[in-house]
Amino acid sequence: IAGLENSLEEVIRELQVLQDAKLSLELEISCYRKLLETEENSLKNIVENSSGARSKGANQLADIVQKSS
Q1: Which residues form a coiled coil (predicted)?
Q2: Kindly report the CA angle at 62 between 61 and 67, in degrees rounded to 5?
Q3: Alpha carbons 69 and 63: distance in angstroms, whole number
């Protein structure tokens, strides 16, 4: 019985180590996911602003061409 109790205690310790590692990895994944989402939103805003700037420039060019015609 003492041997089984020792084995059980060892298994419980190993389980705790694995659960701690799992939690740590889940937190790390969550942090990286947040970083990626933030970067994705930042790039999306840059693209949208660039597209908007080009559209404004294209509109201005169209106005100039129309006025000169």
Answers
A1: 1-28
A2: 100
A3: 10
DSSP string, 1-69: -HHHHHHHHHHHHHHHHHHHHHHHHHHHHHHHHHHHHHHHHHHHHHHHHHHHHHHHHHHHHHHHHHHH-
* CA dihedral for 31, 33, 35, 37, sign (positive or negative): negative
Alpha-carbon distances of 2 from 6, 11, 13, 29, rounded to whole Å: 6, 14, 17, 41
What are the tens digits of pLDDT across the range 19-61? 999 999 999 999 999 999 999 989 888 877 776 665 677 777 7
Tokens at 34, concatenated: 């947040």
